[in-house]
Amino acid sequence: MDQTESFDVVILGSGQGGKLLAWHLASLGKRVAVVERQWIGGSCPAVACLPSKNEVWSAHVAATVRHAGHFGTVTGPFSVDMAKVLARKQGMIDRDLAAHRAAYEASGAELIMGTGSFISSDTLEVTLNEGGSRRLRGEKIVINVGTHALIPDVPGLRAAIPLTHIEALELDRAPEHLIVLGGGYTGIEMAQAFRRFGSRVTIVEQGTQLLAHEDLDVAEEVLNILRTDGIEVLVGARLTCIEGRSGVKIQAYVQLSSGPRMLEGTDILVSVGRVPNTAGIGLEAARIAVDDRGYVQVDGALKTNLPNIWAIGEAAGSPQFTHASFDDFRIVRDNLAGGNRRTDGRLVPNVVFIEPQVAHVGLRERDAQREGRKVRMATLPLARVMRTMATDQVAGFMKVLVGTDDDRILGFTMVGPEAGEVMAVVQTAMIAGLPYTSLRDAVLAHLTFAEGLAPLLARVPPRAAG
């Protein structure tokens, strides 16, 4: 065994928060090691956020061509070349990988490709991908190991070798009939994309609605959008058994309220949740506390139960978005420099990149009702936003929640084109603590989708008298 090597900071996992922290600390002269098992830069640039949105955009182009005649552009027969879709995505990944390697070299942080496991509270044993091992001791250690797709314990499902988002993004073909298990963010993004690539698609969602965390009116609007795209959506559908093999032929047996049904498909994509990558990394040996689902327990400063160890990103239970991990980096960075930054009360937005987009920030109507919070609410159908007169993109709506005792915006949701960009305008106002009237009375550019904020906010009921 090689002699133990000492570092100021050892980071287990090179995802968004971890790599940024490594580059920052190394640039300050700290000796930093990053242990990465597979994807330099984490899953986002390699197999998740960027690749999926790359292919979603290719699907958008296919849909634009398919419907070009509506806008006066006459096209002949066309087809989707999935090999080129895959090549375009891979080119982006390769460029990003080169940028990550350059950033490591420029910062001075050492990237170690291998699988790390705690052998004590300050030391990791790393089994190197190229063979051999190294033992690393860190004055400070940061856990940044992320999550992986959950494969539920359904008879025949594992034997069918189902797709997760990782394998789905490697397909150089459009499945003849793709069955998507799960109606969450990733499931519906992939469902719509492959439908636009030419696949027949069926979504099987066990819950009573799509997008379980969203308000019912949002879920119903998305359901209508997907069905308009020609996607079959089954809600309240429990998968009971799978026969066959994904990529060849499968039979999926589901239980509906109306009775059992059998679906015949060629491929199945599983997107029903995530599991933290904390098993088998020696947390027990280091006596690092985890919750009953395996997530590392942290306080608002992202510190574990041990004074020298932090955890960031999805494995620490942070919202499963790259921008949340980025904020985790800033929290640990500032606190290591003597600050007192915390996750408590932070405003984390989210966007579902179907077409049209679904964007949300702040309080939801369902949460306000559950908590017994009184709010003022207003909605605006997207057809009332003037830009839709030029684009014909009328599906969707905007919704805002405002406090009853003051005029602060508490939450905003939009289903519509560029919803994420419009949401960012509202989020900025929320961060600034502006009254909703400031946006309502602002001079917003014409013709934009953000212009719809004025008529939306004009619908907010006045405060109760007295």
UniProtKB/TrEMBL annotation:
Residues 7-326 form the FAD/NAD(P)-binding domain. InterPro entries: FAD/NAD-bd_sf (IPR036188), FAD/NAD-binding_dom (IPR023753), FAD/NAD-linked_Rdtase_dimer_sf (IPR016156), Pyr_nuc-diS_OxRdtase (IPR001100), Pyr_nucl-diS_OxRdtase_dimer (IPR004099). One of its GO terms (molecular function) is flavin adenine dinucleotide binding. Its cofactor is FAD. Belongs to the class-I pyridine nucleotide-disulfide oxidoreductase family. Residues 348-453 form the Pyridine nucleotide-disulphide oxidoreductase dimerisation domain. Disulfide bonds join 44-49. FAD binds at residues 53, 116. It comes from Luteibacter yeojuensis. NAD(+) binds at residues 182-189, 205, 273. The active site is at residue 446. This is FAD-dependent oxidoreductase. Keywords: FAD, Flavoprotein, NAD, Nucleotide-binding, Oxidoreductase. Pfam families: Pyr_redox_2 (PF07992), Pyr_redox_dim (PF02852).
